Automatic annotation (TrEMBL), chain A:
It is a multi-pass membrane protein. Gene3D superfamilies: MetI-like. It comes from Streptomyces akebiae. Residues 74-266 form the ABC transmembrane type-1 domain. The lineage of its organism: Bacteria, Bacillati, Actinomycetota, Actinomycetes, Kitasatosporales. This is Carbohydrate ABC transporter permease. Its main location: membrane. Belongs to the binding-protein-dependent transport system permease family. Keywords: Cell membrane, Membrane, Transmembrane, Transmembrane helix, Transport. The chain crosses the membrane at residues 12-32, 73-98, 110-131, 143-165, 186-211, 245-266. Coiled coil: none annotated.
Length: 280, 298
């Protein structure tokens, strides 16, 4: 690691020390969340907060899971996020293939439109989407949360996947054709596995946008709360006047853990995926 | 047969591949944008929603009402300043830590990377509540450590905005850090070594080699940050209880939500949405043009 251009020893040690300190600071809110979820209620609300607990308890988690339909909200969130991830990955893969491996009229126009679409603040579309969902009878259903998020994650996903599809050599397609493989066979059995790392990186973004969604859940699920998602369940414990901090932190932990697991699983692919997408 | 570029293909196949994307985008993106513009020209309140009264065309009435309202200008200014502060801080922290990552060995690098992934993975709503607890006047650890007693961060306008800014930077710097770090890593090591052997200083290497090569990446992360930070909703909504005391912490997004869904003025809310859309498109297009003026291809 002593290549030229790398700082000398004392500087590197200082850099490493600060990296560790910063890591601790960045991780601290998450540590505090889990800690508070495990503390007994009295201890959370002590005016001398301690960074550890002598009496860890699962009471807060019991309260959260005992709350009506919490499991259902959790399942709803999973259904929404997974559907969005899978659907937008497939649709974006097809579209990215079309714009990179074919030349056709309006190709550039389409690419520019995908770029511009990324700049549209989707939150501004809450009002028209509300009426649209109402007209299609989708209010108070998971469809009202799934459909818009598929649309919103597409432009970014298509842009990111473009680089990956481009990186697959043309010669491979020709060889496949010579071997008599049909176009769709090439698409699904050769191209798809090759761009899979790119799909993983893009799916991180679609997963987060769907899992985090608060505005649409708040605006589109108005009367049938059994169709609600985790952010809404969390608000049951968060009353601005008198929040049940143990409940809020336990619900927060339950809501954060799946995403954390997902991130750790795809960590390497995410970093290389971003590198691959931006190199293009 | 073996041309490097895609071959000319005049059949329907590309359109077949594009069809699902175009259907979804057309129905759930293009059409709502059109509708947003349309609703903003109408008087559209609870009466029209329930079908009791027909929607009446107002022309620019909603916009006139909006622009004549002092609160709108105040919210607009707050939104722009707040978003700009978030973007600048996020980019500064993200880029600085990306550079730091390239200077350290595997263990500190992994530690910082994992911590950042954790912050990134945290949903906005849980991040908001955790930061509120950390800064709670009665039992948050931050006030104890800083010796601030029971100072309330969400009470004052600026300290509330500052608290939200901290949370926003915390959960959005990781995207910048990881992307820029991936970009730096994709610069061939030989180039950097050659420059160092030629006696180029660190600053010179950054300015003459890394910065130009990283520019496309910086464009992406800057635009994404502008888009994300300009439309922050959850953090403001949760951390300041729907926009702060007497609406002191409102930003356009929350303002539009309050107008539309809380007071059923959908036409007015849509007009705010249109204003947001126009500002964001303008900011991003100006930025893209500036970069293209410098010979950057997008």
């Amino acid at each position: 690691m002593n290549s030229p251009g790398f700082p000398r020893r004392p500087w590197r040690l200082a850099a490493e020390a600060s990296a560790l300190v910063i890591a601790v600071v960045v991780a601290f809110p998450l540590y505090w969340m889990v800690l508070s979820a495990l503390k007994p209620t009295g201890e959370i609300e002590s005016s001398e907060p301690r960074p550890w607990t002598l009496a860890p308890t699962l009471d807060s988690f019991r309260r959260v899971f005992g709350q009506q339909e919490f499991g259902r909200y959790f399942a709803n969130s999973l259904v929404v996020a997974c559907t969005v991830v899978v659907a937008s990955a497939l649709i974006a893969f097809l579209a990215a293939t079309a714009v990179t491996r074919f030349r056709f009229r309006f190709r550039t126009t389409l690419l520019i439109m995908f770029l511009v679409a990324q700049m549209v603040p989707v939150e501004a579309l809450t009002i028209p989407l509300f009426f649209q969902m109402r007209d299609f009878g989708q209010l108070n259903t998971l469809g009202a949360l799934i459909l818009p998020h598929i649309a919103f994650s597409l432009p970014f996903a298509i842009w990111m996947l473009r680089g990956f599809v481009k990186a697959v050599p043309e010669a491979l397609e020709e060889a496949a054709q010579l071997d008599g493989a049909s176009r769709s066979r090439f698409l699904w059995q050769i191209l798809f596995p090759l761009v899979f790392p790119g799909l993983v990186a893009t799916s991180v973004f679609s997963f987060i946008s769907a899992w985090n969604d608060f505005l649409f859940a708040k605006s589109f699920i108005i009367s049938d709360t059994s169709q609600s998602t985790l952010p809404m369940a969390l608000l049951v414990f968060y009353k601005p006047e008198e929040p049940d901090w143990g409940g809020v932190m336990a619900a927060s932990t339950v809501m954060t853990v799946p995403v954390l697991i997902f991130f750790v699983l795809v960590q390497r692919r995410l970093v290389s995926g971003l590198g691959g997408a931006v190199k293009d | 047969m073996s041309s490097g570029s895609p071959r000319p293909f005049r059949g329907a196949t590309p359109w077949l591949y594009l069809a699902p994307a175009l259907v979804v985008l057309g129905g759930l993106f293009v059409y709502p944008v059109y509708q947003l513009g349309l609703i903003s020209f109408f008087e559209y309140t609870q009466a029209q929603v329930s079908g009791g009264e027909p929607a009446t065309f107002q022309g620019l009435g909603n916009y006139a009402e909006l622009f004549g309202d002092g609160q709108f200008w105040q919210v607009l200014l707050a939104t722009v300043v707040f978003a700009a502060a978030c973007v600048v801080s996020t980019l500064a922290v993200g880029c600085a830590l990306a550079v730091l990552l390239t200077r350290v060995r595997a263990v500190p690098r992994l530690a910082l990377m994992l911590a950042a992934l954790g912050a990134w993975a945290t949903p906005a709503i849980t991040g908001s509540t955790v930061w509120l607890l950390l800064f709670d006047p009665d039992f948050g650890p931050v006030n104890r450590v800083l010796g601030l007693g029971d100072h309330s961060w969400t009470y004052g306008r600026y300290s509330a905005f500052f608290l939200v800014l901290l949370e926003v930077v915390w959960c959005s710097f990781p995207f910048v850090m990881v992307t820029v770090y991936a970009g730096i890593r994709s610069v061939p090591a030989e180039v950097l070594e050659a420059a160092a052997l030629d006696g180029a200083s660190q600053w010179r290497i950054w300015r003459s080699i890394l910065a130009p090569m990283l520019r496309p990446i910086l464009v992406v992360v800057t635009i994404q940050s502008i888009i994300w930070d300009f439309k922050v909703f959850t953090q403001i909504y949760v951390m300041t209880g729907g926009g702060g005391i007497a609406g002191q912490n409102l930003v356009l997004n929350v303002y539009a939500y309050q107008k539309a869904f809380a007071s059923s003025q959908y036409g007015l809310g849509s007009a705010i949405g249109v204003v947001m859309l126009v500002i964001l498109l303008a900011v991003t297009l100006v930025y893209v043009r500036l970069l293209r003026g410098q010979g950057e291809e997008l």
